[in-house]
Amino acid sequence: MPELPEVETVRRGLLPAMEGRIIEKAEVNRPDLRWPLPENMAARLTGARVLRLRRRSKYILADLDRGETLLIHLGMSGRMLVSGVALGDFVIDHPTPQKHDHIVFHMEGGGRVTFNDARRFGAMDLFPTEAEDSYWLLEKLGPEPFSNQLSEDYLTTKLRGRASPIKTLLLDQAIVAGLGNIYVCEVLFRAGIDPRRQGRQIAEKRLRPLVAIIREVLAEAIDAGGSSLRDHRQADGELGYFQHRFKVYGREGQPCRSCGQPVLRIVQSGRSSFYCAHCQR
Ligand SMILES: [Zn+2]
User: Fold this and answer.
1) Is 58 a catalytic residue?
2) Which fold has domain 152-275?
3) What pLDDT digit, counting tens, does each position of 9-32 carry?
4) Model pTM?
5) Is 94 annotated as ligand-binding?
6) What range(s) does the FPG-type domain occupy (predicted)?
């Protein structure tokens, strides 16, 4: 599942092809992905100009000059390919059409954006731009990690006194938008907090630094994605997947990068938590 840094990398990779440009032709090759696609989607997109390409949580949002916003969600298996415009120093040729190329945007300027999704867990939708705050996928989201709304006071208030494990609280999208399993594990390692500890068991002076740590961990991952775009390691034009060096995530049994003790894995609410029992208390 792509997390916020991967989605942000995809957004940045799409910018040169999409932002400020007209969708000369939208090809919509099936009626649904995870959910039914919006009615008359091809006609509503063809000829529209993308004014801005933004991100909210793990969604990419393209504001159109017709007053609608196109929402793109990669889901588990969605892949975005960009061709015909420079990505880094490199222009990727248009790929041969593949099975599962469900949506293709032919952009002004010669760029092409292909959404390929074999398992169809991804989604696209259109909603009125002015109704963003009441749109069902966005209305319950808490503040963005890099926004001013996510202050130390805000987060500390949301976490202290709570009986749920800190891992569960940080995964709650209504508290912070966009944090997923991987980066919550990394944040808690960097904060030295045991993922099982309840919000109410953690001293305020250990909660306050979490905002800075969340931003640090996400910013490093976004930088890693940015350099993968610049080095055009994605030579086939596929955006968003790059190699990370995680501190604890996916490293069960391997030595902690700080103390050398083996990294442990437990399951919390059906998700794996990776942590070091020596470094995280
Ligand atoms: Zn350790």
Assistant:
1) yes
2) Helicase, Ruva Protein; domain 3 (1.10.8)
3) 999 999 999 999 999 999 999 999
4) 0.93
5) no
6) 247-281
